[in-house]
Amino acid sequence: MPRYFFDTRDGDNTMIGDEALEFQDLEAARQDAAGALAEMAREVLPLSKQRQIVMDVRSETGERVLSLSLTFAVERQTES
Amino acid sequence: LPVDLLIRKLEERDRLSEEEKQVLAAALGPSKSVSADSDMVREGDRPSESTLLVEGFAARYKVLQSGKRQITAIHVPGDFVDLHGFLLKKMDHAIAALTPCTVATVPHETLRRITERHPHLARLLWLSTLIDSAIHREWLVAMGRRSAKEHMAHLFCELYLRLQLVGLTKDNSYEMPITQAELGDTLGISTVHVNRVVQELRAEGLITWRGNRLAVDDWDRLRQVAEFTPTYLSLFNERR
User: Fold this and answer.
1) Which tens digits make up the pLDDT trace of B181-228?
2) Fewer CB within 10 Å, N or C, chain A?
3) Bridging pattern class, strands B101-107 and B169-170
4) Considering only CB atoms, which chain B residues are within 8 Å of A39?
């Protein structure tokens, strides 16, 4: 089964995955990574006004095979 | 001896008489092994005996139709994995061996006799199911309200104390023979998120998890992150 590294960029905060995780295929890795993005968002969004979280999936040889991102913005309507 | 694990756990919470220890020793059947990833009890079963885990890690779990699994309890040596099965009769969940396990069983008929003839021992068995449900309560709070990092830190603190109780910690470390995917099924989060959080705890100098061994490098800070208070494990010796 293929193994992938997962890097996360959350604003200025970058975390380079240092351990490859085994998945059935790339689609299974994509689903799990999407779940991780949603889980991270659940924790940080209530305290955020604007945020972009990006997750890169790298193959075992280090080459980027997928990039998932989540953008959050709050727009306040001002009354004229 | 398998019974020593059970006695050791109970004696942390109350005093046992020699007679009570003998009753427990006589109640346990011979040990048998269960291979990793197989079920020791299946959902829907009506077991006629309760299983004491002697070696290895086991998990209570449920699987949804989508195939998603939630582990609702992790058991370590000295734990009864299904003492509740004695009175609940029909299993509403399954129990799997996460690693190769050794177990010993007590027939429900023997448990019934113990409740009739040894009320103090019966209370201690009752206590152990109460501690199981106290652990479930903590897990529920963590699942619903703690961040993944706090939740994982909480579980690592809990396992440290539970394993220490049966002499399975060494220095600051213990065997943690489960995969990150299994840990994800336990915490209710994705494997990728588990991996990120493990890396974060490691980067902050709180833990090291190499191979099957988890070392708690900074107990005080791990405990602070987790807001861990061990009251629910009822780790004090008192007449029950």
Assistant:
1) 999 999 999 999 999 999 999 999 999 999 999 999 999 999 999 999
2) C
3) unpaired
4) 148, 189-190, 193
In the numeric block, the tokens 């429900």 are attached to: B108
- The DSSP secondary structure of B95-164, one letter per residue, reads EEESS-EEEEEEEHHHHHHHHHH-HHHHHHHHHHHHHHHHHHHHHHHHHHHS-HHHHHHHHHHHHHHHHH
Distance from CA of A5 to the nearest CA of B (A): 9
Kindly report the CA angle at B9 between B168 and B155, in degrees rounded to 5? 55
Token pair for residue B99?
Answer: 């690693």
Minimal C-alpha gap between B192 and chain A (Å) = 6
Q: What does pTM read for this prediction?
A: 0.96
pLDDT digits (tens, 9 = 90+) for A14-48: 999 999 999 999 999 999 999 999 999 999 999 99
Could you give the ipTM of this predicted complex?
0.95
Contact, B77 vs B166, CB < 8 A?
yes
- Per the listing, tokens 């193994």 go with A3
Residues of chain B with Cβ-Cβ distance to A35 below 8 Å are 189-190, 192-193
When scoring B193, B200, B201, B202 by the number of chain A Cβ atoms within 10 A, the one with the most, hence best to mutate, is B193
Dmax of chain B from CA atoms?
54
